[in-house]
Amino acid sequence: MTPSDSSRPVTSENAIELLNLCKTYAPTGKEPGKEALKSVILGIPKGRIFGLLGPNGAGKSTLINILAGLVNKSSGTARIWGYDIESHMRQARLSIGIVPQELNFDPFFTPYDLLEQQAGFFGVPKGERRTDEILQIMGLADKARSHTRSLSGGMKRRLMVGKAMVHNPPILVLDEPTAGVDIELRQQLWSYVRKLNDQGTTIVLTTHYLEEAEELCDDIAIINHGQIIACDSKDALLARIEGKTVTILLQEPLAEIPANLERFSVEQTAADRLVFTTKTNDGQINEILQALQATRLQIADITTEQGDLEDIFLQLTSGAHAA
Ligand code: ADP
To answer: Kind and range of the H or E element at 50?
Structure first.
């Protein structure tokens, strides 16, 4: 699979469209220039929860920072809600809210003042501000007038999301929303993100947690070494996985795989161990068991394991070469 045929076509149904987006950071001192994005083509559909998944250094932050206007692209085009980030910079910026990884507010501000200040920054007229509504949605109404330093970790994270929503953007981008966040808080944030999506906001999140992508996202793009190497609905990606593995532990060591098992995808991983890989739910397990019975091998144990996003991620990223 080449990067270009794994990408979605660019259409007007997309909230974000990237066409041949490239970024090479200039060389600094002894560091050579770094090609962080290599001709990325990507369409992020409206109304979905879209995960941009990739290992550290893959180019996720670079991509998000270009959308946020914090990093200049080297070439290619990027459109946010149909607005080109260069020729229609203001409209593009107004169409997106970005939640950075790091907390970035003054601890002596109150949530109310912080949201009001941010709304002012985006030029939202006083009569059109949604400060109280956002505090309500984010579960912060009763903390509206407290110093932000007195908020719990979870409340601070939610305030960051609220801050990105003051101009009512149709797209919300969360950069590694749960990096370093404990499990309970992670669940809580996910439920807020789902709520915002239910209310119509397109959500884009970057993550290197496969579990987060699997739990939350409708669609997933996998980026590695600055290239999109897969982009599909989560279900389609999971369906691609050479599903289940069935591990057979034998009572006796085996010299070689019996001929009647060779029609299956089978590997001998130890003298007494055979690992079969089957497509999920295709009924092949029954056939494998019958074939095993015919070999008269004595079986000590059988274990099965379902493939998950981690398998496809490893499958896709392990073959790629470093830049
Ligand atoms: P990710 O967010 O997926 O971890 P990044 O976009 O931060 O990846 O980085 C992609 C590549 O670009 C990495 O090799 C990184 O070292 C490099 N890079 C990121 N920012 C800069 C910068 N300001 N100057 C030079 N190289 C950078």
So the answer is: strand 49-53
